[in-house]
Amino acid sequence: MATGDRRRRVTIADVASHAQVSTTAVSKVIRNAYGVSPAMRDRVQAAIAELGYRPHAAARALRGRTFTIGVMLPDIRSPFFAELLDGLTEHLADTDYQAIMIQGGLTQRSEERAINALVDRPVDGILMVAPLAARTRLERVAADIPTVVLGRHERSAAYDTVCDDDDTGARLAVEHLISLGHRRIAHIAHRDNSRARPADLLHVIRAETYDRVMREHGLADEIAVVTTSYSAEGGYQGACELLGRDPRPTAIFAGADQAAVGALGAAHEAGLAVPADLSVVGYDNIQLAALPNIALTTVDQDGAVMGRTAARLLLERIEGRTSALRFSVTPSLIVRRSTAAPPPESAPPQTT
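Now predict its structure.
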């Protein structure tokens, strides 16, 4: 900071004095307003750089805009959410907007606190990723602040939604295993305390599609579901339970890659080789899935595209669009080395 008093924040007046222009001219340059000559813009931007001036968010909020977007994530540890953020920040890179993140947590109480924290702060828009709140609560937020919801399948006139075609993705996973010859295919599902309609929740759609596809192929008697969580711990616990059954499954479809990684750990602990003894399929295609020592077959829903799309829709909302839009990603199956034909069944005992 160029001022002698390091405790004092550089103001717009300091910039105007340094550039020998009016504060109105500085404000126009900051807002990228119409009617500023190139020479004026260059002079003001040089003064801003020399003084280290940064617009004060609270002051900008009083003028109607802060150029900040609030992003609420349920869990900051998820690798898939990191890919969403990569796409979001990539789209924002050529704008004046910055994203600030807050963790909603896994309970309704912690999420409500996070929502209130964003509402009470001067953000221009909010992206909620897989929120637990009821649609009516989300619509109350969207009535005051432009909002995009990612990961839920509901339709609302108050906010935009970005989601994956989870029915298609789950079908790709299960039918891939069936095509390899598997019959004893189990599923690791997710449980939460969401207030959304079950039909709008991605994990419910994936579990129901698994059930439906198994029945369509005459495998109703082979349906086996363990409901834990879409985490490595949940996948491990679920796989341990499934592998302890007799007969044990020859394949597991985990509803998320993190759960699939946990299932791989359980298989290793049980002395099973993947895919010779057990095939495993995940969902999300996180970067970890492509590592050679994991090589996980998975459903790719392109998190970066979802993040970029959410950012684009949110900026459109901020700029005044009021009609609701819904964007759905078409998933694809990425086949790697964690799936193969099932092991030969043990020969029946010989009788004498």
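The chain has three domains: 12-55, 68-164+303-330, 166-300.
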